């Protein structure tokens, strides 16, 4: 039987060596990148993520992007998308789903802080664009969710709203 005077130290060394080896030996993880950031060339949200189509960006991090809906039903109507093309939110892996929801909460807090609505509404339904998107709305009555209230905003109003929201983000 081999006795190790400080087994914890040996285990730590081994595990740290294994981690180091993994980091050093792993090539750039192309498969992971493809999985995380797969794109559909015909998808308007993928084009926004890639910067090929302009949008009024409110927030961006490594895995998610939040921007104003260009056909808002309320001023401040914001979309949050994962940067990878996945049609249904419930088909995202758990990590990406949780990240999307964390960004959604950040945008909800921002809309509350910047626009002071009675309520902040969230919808995931997926009609329109088949790239997962969460819709966040400032609400003052249940009727505010009606698409009959679609608001036509000028470019100037979009820029003002995107600036207001992006400056209100609590990072
Ligand atoms: Zn897409």
UniProtKB/TrEMBL annotation:
GO-annotated biological processes: nucleotide metabolic process
Residue ranges annotated for the HIT domain, each copy included: 44-147
Molecular function GO labels: catalytic activity
Domain of life: Bacteria
Bias (Polar residues) ranges: 1-19
Region (Disordered): 1-22
PANTHER family reported in the protein's UniProt record: ADENOSINE 5'-MONOPHOSPHORAMIDASE HNT1, HIT FAMILY PROTEIN 1
Name this polypeptide is given: HIT family protein
Source species of the chain: candidate division WWE3 bacterium CG22_combo_CG10-13_8_21_14_all_39_12
